[in-house]
Amino acid sequence: MEDDRDDDNDNAGPTPDERRQTRRERLILDLFFNGTDLTGVASINDISLGGLYMKTQQFIPENSLLTLRIPFAEGDVIVNGEVVYTRPNDGIGIRFQGLRDADREIIKRALADT
């Protein structure tokens, strides 16, 4: 029996773009983060209403929970997030958890201005 699968992709899961539920826009901002055993400042590379990618050299494992403070012109957005993927020595993808409506509106307006 012939196997029609592409051997190069047998173990490949969905890419971050395929997993993402909302489209990310490029927006460069610094953010502040706190986790169980870490704290720091990083740069946002891109952001959506569902999450963001932040540039950091710090190793932060997948499934880590972080509290993020993102300073927008309208005010700070403070939101919890889960690390959904890592790129060692580059950055991490974060999915927001429990984004408040007011914070969602701040992000929407910032994205509309890009």
Structure commentary:
The chain has helices at residues 16-19, 101-112, and strands spanning 25-34, 39-47, 51-55, 65-72, 75-87, 91-97. With 114 residues, it is mainly beta. The chain has one domain (15-112): Thrombin, subunit H, CATH 2.40.10. Strands 1-2-3-6-5-4 form a six-stranded antiparallel β-barrel. The longest helix has 12 residues, at 101-112. The N and C termini lie far apart (53 Å). Residues 1-14 have low confidence and may be disordered.
Task: Write a short abstract of this structure.
By secondary structure, the chain is mostly beta strands. 14% of the residues lie in helices and 46% in strands.
Helix content: 10-25%
| CATH topology group | Thrombin, subunit H
Strand content: over 45%
The side-by-side strand order for the widest beta sheet comes to: 1-2-3-6-5-4
Secondary-structure content class: mainly beta
Annotated CATH architecture: Beta Barrel
Total DSSP helices: 2
Q: Please compute the radius of gyration using only Cα atoms.
A: 16 Å
Main sheet characteristics: 6 strands, antiparallel, barrel
Q: Any idea of the CATH class?
A: Mainly Beta
Secondary structure layout:
Elements: H1 16-19, E1 25-34, E2 39-47, E3 51-55, E4 65-72, E5 75-87, E6 91-97, H2 101-112
Antiparallel strand pairs: 1-2, 1-4, 2-3, 3-6, 4-5, 5-6
